[in-house]
Inverse folding.
């Protein structure tokens, strides 16, 4: 049985929800952190791996819980800071135009519009019914289609 399967069985026996994406592990439920941490360290040690304590976070039910960049408390959504940043960028593009906006922020990226479009698509992947992000996507497609060439729209 692999270490991942062992961890899964350990968690199932204790009614702990365990998910893993690449090397990011998330545990949720009502459990003793020390017991879980001890088991995890043993399994990692058996593979000659170490846990990065700087990336280890314990988030209580009353705290904002972020997993792989998404807030996962009651429903999955992006942190408001990310949405605010997109909103701000679209606002300045509309107000000053793309060239002036890029000059104002000191950006010379040729793929800026593609990058912004990708961030909007990511927001819509997490929250498909977000009307604001849907409008921003339409705005970029209507006004900067040439800069989005080669990017699935």
């Amino acid at each position: 049985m692999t270490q991942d399967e062992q961890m899964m069985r350990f968690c199932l026996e204790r009614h702990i929800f365990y998910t893993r994406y690449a090397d990011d592990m998330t545990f949720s439920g009502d459990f003793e952190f020390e017991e879980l941490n001890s088991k995890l360290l043993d399994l990692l040690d058996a593979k000659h791996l170490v846990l990065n304590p700087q990336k280890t976070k314990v988030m209580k039910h009353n705290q904002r819980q972020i997993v792989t960049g998404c807030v996962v408390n009651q429903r999955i959504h992006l942190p408001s800071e990310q949405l605010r940043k997109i909103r701000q960028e679209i606002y300045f593009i509309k107000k000053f135009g793309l060239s002036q906006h890029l000059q104002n922020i000191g950006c010379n990226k040729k793929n800026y519009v593609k990058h912004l479009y990708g961030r909007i698509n990511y927001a819509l992947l997490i929250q498909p019914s977000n009307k604001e992000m849907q409008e921003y996507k339409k705005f970029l497609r209507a006004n900067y289609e040439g800069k989005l060439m080669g990017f699935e729209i």
User: Anything to note?
Assistant: The mean pLDDT is 89.
